[in-house]
Amino acid sequence: MCEESLSFPPYPTEPSGHDETVEVRVGTSGGNRVFELTTTAARRDNPTRHRRIGERPADPRILTGSPLFDALFAQAIDDARLNAVSSIRDGAYRHGEPIPCDCFQTGEKWTYVWTRDVSYATHLGLAVLDPERAAITLLYKVSPFRDGLALPDGLPVGSLQIIQDTGSGGSWPVSTDRVSWAFGAEALLATLHGTAHAAFADTAFRALSGTIEADRLAAFDPADGLYRGEQSFLDWRDQTYAPWVIDDLTTIATSKALSTNACHFKALDLAARLAAERGDTAAADRYAGWAADLRAAVDRGFWLEEKSLYASITTPDSPARPVETFDMLGLSLAILTGIAGRERARRILSAYPHVPFGAPVYYPAQPDVFCYHNRAIWPFVTAYELLAAVEVETVAAFDHAFESLVRAAALNLDNVENQEWLTGRTWFDDGPCISSARQLWSVGGYLGMVMTAIFGYRPAAEGFRIAPFLTAHVRDRLGDGRAELHGLVHHGRRIAIALNLPPRVAGQGHYALREVRLNGAPVTGLVADASLRDDNTVDVTFGDLIPDDAGLSLIPVVEAVTHDDPRVFSPREPLITDLVVEDGRVRLNFEGQPPRSGRREALLFTVLRDGEVAAADLSDTVWHDPVPLRPGIRRAYRVVARFEMSGNASHPSLEAAIEADAVLTIGVDGAGVERRDGRLIFADVAVREAGDYRLALLYRNHSFHIQTGVTNAVKRVEVFDAEGRPVASGIVQMPHMTPVNPRRRSTFLPMHLRAGRYRIEIDDFFNMSYLSSNATYISPGGMSGPHNKADIRALDMIRSG
């Protein structure tokens, strides 16, 4: 019996901190290895500190000089096996009754399938481990419209929709990251083969094309070329957005997110390639052109040169402005999709602030918010950082991510959902509020680290490539001799990969790839399926170490229990207390909110006027706008606070606006307003002066809770001039509202109008309740049928220029 132990130090200021140790002993049973793992760390929701894992001959397995590393890979395989189920369940569907599905559930505590979870998990590792089950799971998140419902105008005939799960304000298009599905689909198209590949490719194109066209209508902003919608994964409103968004979810719906736009880019890029394979040149050119335009728009809309980072989100204004918050998922996806070029990608990985045991998913941390997305490490995001580091050969970021994934899996004897950001524990201080065992994308992330990054297996439709990324640090962890990966199945053929480990070398870098041999013969580039036997061995030999001196940004050591230390937290957003108009000019009064405990740091303020910077680095909280008001034109202000020393910035304040004489309001009970064939028609809208206008509907939508549901009211608006000619059209949405709000404005439809009379027609578009997948949903818009209603009380025409 062989054994190994590894100790991990605590966070420096953790109360009663001490080293935690993991020990593994390896035995055999029936010719297969059995790993006995023991940890000294407390396991959340599990009183035992021991786990026994037996390898199975049919599963992938690794054999290295590190018994612990071998055991942790076996643990990820075992976690995936435990998540492989014959039925799933969720209380929101069929009243919690089992739903037959030979698929992967999301985790021990999450027994359903969610689009983003399975998509990222499949992309990270499940497509390689079990492509058939991963495909079933991914296809569960695709749906036609319900029987009897016509396909909305503008969607391709025969197309499908990717499901946006229940969520903020009644779901899509408040949230639009359902296109993350494209990451999983791309991975499966590389691992499926034969008729399974052909069938999946056909469904994937139908789902992507339908979704892309719907999102282009409902979520695309031609003003800046970006897609609107909530952040991908960071979708808990009061975790990573300003607190005031909870009372007005249209602000999330109109803001843009880096991660979500990276997903839209991937969907467009994949759809273009699938269209080309089908011989649909027009669609291929259309989607490829949109993808190229979006890549440029992301650079314009999110990149902050002085930070060497893309911002996570923008303000909900027009023009939108990047908010100085940052997230590792969005950054990693920007690197992996190629949105960020190599030079910029390496800057990102060096500049992003890391904590001792990983990368916080979101930075700076937000004060007054408990630990879940905020103040947390999520292994699947760390795995994406690791793959991004491989993409641009950034060794420090790779090694830090490697240690983070190994530490989490080892100490917890599990691929856990998340950890508190400083101590790396699954419970410390006030969270994370939930951390499920064997979280599916954490499992996929660990598998991807081993199979994709370290052993370099890169499947493709007609073969595979071998591109291992072996750093000096990881090479030290693997022991001596060879590191072997057995049990891969590539397009029906068995593959074993052996890394002939080079001599240990001091320094930071990765080893050059010298030679790859397939069954004894040297190969380069793509290893074609036609060259494979039933059983195949790939031997990899390395050359010299390629040095890499790129550094890693580490946050200061702060108290483990801090909730607002200015060195690592953002300031609380300012409060605008008053707008005073004096002789046609505005005096703006506002308040900063300094830290309530611990270190104090001076605040500086930036004033935004109509989305643009009007003044910066103010220390005074009274500001006189030198630009006079324009009569009859709306003006709006926000204020951003910044800590003078750390530079950490707040979310922008709640908007304060002057709308005197700038808004034409027409109530639904007024003359010339009628309801006909399900449409709401404002037959005679008089525009007195030419200019830029924003159309909004004043509404109430209390269909369901603000945090969930599928009944966001989504309407198509068409504007016609006096001769009946169309002059503007678009989609507006009216998300769920908190009960205390009597009415809100919908999202805006911008337009330029001449003076004259107009007819405005409002009709249904669609929401997620129209999909057959929600026919078993137990809340509004589910079993009772589609629901796309809001209590519209008035039309607002707001002059903005």
From TrEMBL:
Residue ranges crossing the lipid bilayer per the database entry: none
Q: InterPro entries recorded for this chain? A: 6-hairpin_glycosidase_sf (IPR008928), 6hp_glycosidase-like_sf (IPR012341), MGH1-like_GH (IPR054491)
Question: Among the record's GO biological process terms, what is one?
Answer: carbohydrate metabolic process
Q: Which residues form the Mannosylglycerate hydrolase MGH1-like glycoside hydrolase domain?
A: 259-412
Q: Known Pfam families for this protein?
A: MGH1-like_GH
The identity of this protein, by name, is Mannosylglycerate hydrolase MGH1-like glycoside hydrolase domain-containing protein
Q: Record the organism.
A: uncultured Pleomorphomonas sp
